[in-house]
Amino acid sequence: MSSETELNQYLTSLMMDNYQLNNLKNIDAQEFEETILGKLNKINLTSEGYKDTSKQRDMSLKFYWGHYHHFGTFAIPGIMEERHIEIITYLVNDFGLPLDLTGKKILDIGVWTGGTSLLLAAMGATVTACEEVKMYSDTVNYMAHAFDIENQLKCDNTSLYSIDYHDEFDYVLYLGVIYHVTDPVLSLRILYNALKDGGDIFAETFGLDTKGENSPLCAIQGGPANSGKVEHLNRTGWNYFIPSYSGFEKWLETVGFKNLEVVPLTSDNRLRAKGTRIKHEDMLRAGLSRPDIR
User: Is the Cβ–Cβ distance between 161 and 132 less than 8 Å?
Assistant: First the structure.
């Protein structure tokens, strides 16, 4: 592709060509539309099994669509709009992700309603998605079944900390997730282990704007509990550690990634990085929160 605009248009057309109602194989179009639209904004206080829903974020209790998707006869705007297209465009143009992913195995972490996962499958990859919120993982698997791509896309309903993949994947995508987890170093080590030797991680995060030699390497946000009432669903409290450029680089370095490319903070406070697991090696074990992690 000769330009970012052309690549963006190409990836958009891939989504349109593969995931509209006329591409459905296993679900009737009317049933599919009713099912998808029926999910939107639905509140379910029991499906995720939380002990105290008043302490949870609203996106884990109320169904929000993640990415823009035009299904042919209806469209869903999605909170993150075209971000799935934009971030894959960036990974191809700036970090060398192949545009043809045929034969490649990818682990996609924190996929929400599956925008990036669907796009990667359309690019030819076999994708294992990981999503801890059941209503979203169910939706990704429903679409994989509906469009008959279950041989290319499956979504595990599990915590990142519970996955048990070793030496399997050519690429890991860890986009917009690491600042939501309680143990960023452990999470990166788990993903390091999931890669094959020679495999790459593509990571992206909300970043800390720091200046000066003694600036902090990360900030801790957390967040207060909400009122406890359904109508006041919590919009805060799911950001844990927000890294600076140096902090992000140090996390990746600590778990063993080499040939690091970390892009300076963007105007919208995002950090992007690529790292390679050249050959599996041990890391410092002292203080590691899961000593069973190799």
Answer: no
Token pair, residue 274, equals: 């690529």
Quote the distance between the C-alpha of residue 289 and its chain's center: 23
Q: With H, G, I as helix, E, B as strand and everything else as coil, classify residue 186.
A: helix
Tell which residue, 260, 259, 261, 250, has the closest CA to residue 284: 250
pLDDT in tens, 93-114: 999 999 999 999 999 999 999 9
What pLDDT is stored for residue 112 in this prediction? 96
Tokens of 12: 């958009």
Q: What is the mean pLDDT of residues 159-183?
A: 96
Q: Give the integer Cα–Cα distance in Å for 53 and 31.
A: 31
C-alpha distances in Å from residue 147, one per residue of 12, 111, 223: 17, 18, 39
C-alpha 199/C-alpha 30 separation (Å) is 41
Give pLDDT tens digits for 193-202.
Answer: 999 999 999 9
* Residues contacting 33, CB < 8 A, separation 6+: 21, 71, 73, 74
**Looking at residues 136-161, what average pLDDT do you find?**
98
Residue 31 CA to residue 118 CA, distance in Å, equals 20
User: Which helix (H) or strand (E) element contains residue 205?
Assistant: strand 195-206
DSSP SS3 for 53: helix
CA 145/CA 27 separation, integer angstroms? 8
The pLDDT of residue 239: 85
The Cα 191–Cα 277 span in angstroms is 10
Distance CA 134, CA 19 (A): 22
Residue identified by tokens 């690491």 is: 178
